[in-house]
Specification:
Blueprint: H1 10-14, H2 18-39, H3 45-56, H4 58-68, H5 74-84, H6 97-115, H7 119-132
Helix pairs in contact: 2-3, 2-6, 4-6, 4-7, 5-6
């Protein structure tokens, strides 16, 4: 099944609002986390949910973002910084502003990679995220 007829170009992605990229990236990251949890053998929904939350919470995403920083190319770094520097309208109570900013940057990057069709690179970075969160 093909999800997109055409991938966004890097130029087209610059026109997408940063928090919209993060919105897409949040979904991508969540799906990757849920898929990983199932691969790890979590069969009961309660166990799967708990493990997924461990992977997707802002603190974990901030830790993952720090681990990915040296792996990013110039374009990826620019997208990450664009997301990190975005100004969301709300801030969750369960994390610090810095953690939330790093998580937003990571989600923006994952959203941009997904929309641009760079799925192999997305997979490489997801593998690095899992390694960082062991």
């Amino acid at each position: 099944m093909e999800l997109f007829r055409e991938a966004y170009t890097e130029e087209a992605l610059r026109a997408v609002p940063t928090l919209t990229l993060a919105h897409v990236g949040d979904g991508v990251y969540e799906l990757l986390a849920r898929s990983q949890v199932v691969r790890e053998g979590a069969c009961r929904v309660e166990d799967a949910h708990s493990r997924t939350v461990e992977l997707v919470r802002a603190q974990a995403q901030a830790k993952a973002a720090a681990a990915l920083a040296p792996l990013l190319n110039e374009w990826e770094n620019a997208v990450f910084h664009r997301g990190r520097n975005a100004h969301p309208h709300t801030l969750p109570r369960h994390c610090t502003p810095r953690e939330y900013a790093l998580a937003t940057g990571l989600e923006a990057l994952f959203g941009a990679l997904y929309l641009s069709g760079k799925h192999e690179r997305l997979s490489e970075l997801w593998t690095a995220v899992l390694e960082a969160l062991k």
